[in-house]
Amino acid sequence: MNPVVLDHITKTYENGKVLAASDVSFEVASGELFGLIGPDGAGKTSLFRILTTLLLPDKGNASVLGLDCNKDFEEIRRRIGYMPGRFSLYQDLTVKENLDFFATLFGSTLEENYSLIKDIYEQIKPFNNRRAGKLSGGMKQKLALCCALIHKPEVLFLDEPTTGVDVVSRKEFWDMLKTLKQQGITIVVSTPYMDEAMLCERIALIQTGKILTIDTPGKIIAAFPVPLYAVKAKDTYRLLTELRKRSEIASCFAFGDYVHITLKDNSNESQTDQLKQELIQAGHEQFEIKRIEPTIEDSFIQLMSQTYGR
Amino acid sequence: MKQFLVFIRKEFFHVFRDKRTLLIMFGLPLVQIVLFGFALTSEVKNITLTVIDNSRDLNSRQLTDKIKSSSYFVVNESNIDYNDVLKLFKKNEAKCALIFPSRFGDDLKHNGKAQIQILTDGSDPNTAKTVVNYISNITSAYQQEISNGKPLEYVITPEPRMLYNEEGNGSLNFIPGVMALVLMIVSTALTSVSVVKEKELGTMEILLVSPFKPLMVLISKAVPYLILSLLNIIMILVLAVFVLDVTIKGSIILLFLESMLFIITCLSLGLMISNTTNSQQTALLLSMMGMMLPTMIFTGFMFPLENMPKVFQWISNIIPSRWYFLIIKAVMLKGLGFGYVWKETLILFGMTVLTLTIALKNFKTRLS
User: Fold this and answer.
1) Partner residue facing B205 (CB), from A54, A74, A102
2) Domain ranges (residues) in chain B
3) Has this prediction a pTM greater than 0.80?
4) CATH number of the domain at B47-163, please?
5) Which of A129, B318, B353, B364 has its CA 20 to 30 A from that of A17?
């Protein structure tokens, strides 16, 4: 049996008014690095809390390590590691005190599983006597990860571990996750950053409580159904508004300096040339159009439009 | 067990690293004791004293003149009789009265012993006490004088009577009162806040996910505050004895055991509050408004319960501090033993068991 199983989970808040998870099912294989990708408010944290036995679902069953999240919550709590989305350590305790406290709480010691956290801990060790509240964002995350790992959990749940962390620390963090994965720990991680999705083995794209798709990042991108074009002009905003008015455009979203578009009729390659000429004639300077490979974000938007009919 | 100890140590770190908590915990009782002790025992000056002299002899004249010449009283000599004085008190036209019995001088000369009666308005116990003290002092100075330095030949015994408050509980009352109030604040407010803080900061999520039993979280939260509250009791008692000259008449051990019982009541109340709220502000507001106000009003140390409407008297019965106050007053000020306070202790114990059960039962092992 897979270590993490969600079976038709539905969770609502405020007497059914707010839908956090709608019929969500997925499984995570042993030793897998699984990503839950979705924007804020998609329901990621609710799923994490159900899996970590902190919330009960309205409908459906969840199990971790073959144990029922409802009935065997005490056993599950002994065997998993959880790092909540918000920094959840004691800000008024020092790095060392936090580590010692959580180690003891989980019935372990800092020394016992030192090898597991060594690489991460060495980086924050110079700040052993600094209070956790005074650490930088990246160091806080490292400390939190150490605390979540200190009892050598079999499954690790990381809820948005890189939110609010700088780019360098984010990269370091993902490197750490890969190292942990090599030690055989099953990792479920959530993130709102689409670029981080590529670093997971398998991902689930989630939006307003619904799973859009579950697969490897590569396959999700490969499944992008139509050619995707990136369009650029000097006045991006004017370009965007004009593109939206055109009837041959199927979808159109701003991506930084570019606007990503798909066309309704993909049979005719010369369509893009025609579009280019018309837009240059309309006075767009520095106009540029090119076919591109989709990213996870493109897939996400495409799947979202498809699911919600936008 | 090791987890438990480490948890408690962590709680102490929280307390000692947060100056505000420390200030509330130890500054507040200090301020209250000093405030109640000094500010409220106000000096009385120029108070109208009705003197009824039924004797009209040399000695009564001399004593009245002595009182007149002091700056404390404006003497109003009057011919009215005892019952009229009581009417004056009722109309709030008199605050204190001095009554010489007939044959005051005769008694003093022939028996070497005489009495005066001091009537005071006990609904204002501070003033009443002060008045009694002043008159007693003047009287004893006078008897020294007429005894000509010899061992007291003439003894005048003042017979004070505090109307409406015969027991005469005045300035000493506030020490048990402050004890009840301080324990209520320290134990209830700080405990509830400390649990809710974990929820607010998100650490509760990790604590719940840990193998540490959720109930133990509550208990290890309560233990440090139990210890700190006991320290507080010691501090208050030391202040009372050495700064305010209060003598503890009863058994100190009994005092501590009863205090511990009350602290546990307060802790359970605090835990109860923390179960129902998710923000520190609500918890603080609830424990301050919901607990402190009833404590102040219904405990009986600020406003005498006997003078309250019946409904309020009934309400006061469900306020734990009311019973604690009675117990402490009896043990500390009157020196009574457990035999006299077992009923109150039993009531308090029942309340403790009830609140503790509710608090522990309602503690959620998951996020709401």
Assistant:
1) A54
2) 2-39+171-362, 47-163
3) no
4) 3.40.1710.10
5) B364
What is the SS3 string spanning A185-206?
Answer: CEEEEEECCHHHHHHCCEEEEE
ipTM of the complex: 0.83
Q: In this predicted model, what pLDDT tens digit does every residue of A18-60 receive, in sequence order?
A: 889 989 999 999 999 999 999 888 899 999 999 999 999 999 9
Can you state the angle between helices A137-149 and A167-182, rounded to 10 degrees? 20
* Residue B252 DSSP SS3: helix
Strands of A228-232's sheet in order across: A249-255, A258-263, A228-232, A288-292
Count CA atoms closer than 13 A to B103's CA, side-chain side.
6
Q: Is A114 helix (H, G, I), strand (E, B) or coil?
A: helix
Q: Is the fold of A4-217 the same as that of A225-293? A: no
What percent of chain A has pLDDT above 90?
45
Closest alpha carbon within chain A to B216: A105
Alpha-helix residue ranges (DSSP H) falling in chain B? 2-17, 19-22, 28-34, 58-69, 82-90, 104-106, 125-146, 174-183, 190-201, 203-209, 214-242, 252-276, 280-287, 293-298, 310-316, 320-328, 338-362
From chain B, the residues in CB contact with A73 under 8 A are 365-366
Domain boundaries, chain A: 4-217, 225-293
Mark yes or no for CB contact A78/B7 under 8 Å. Answer: no
B148: tokens are 């000509």
Element of type H or E holding A178:
helix A167-182
- Return the CATH class of domain A225-293: alpha beta
Residues of chain A with a CB closer than 8 angstroms to some CB in chain B: 49, 52-56, 73-74, 77-78, 80, 82, 84, 86-93, 97, 100-102, 104-107, 147
- The single residue listed with the structure tokens 């508004």 is A241
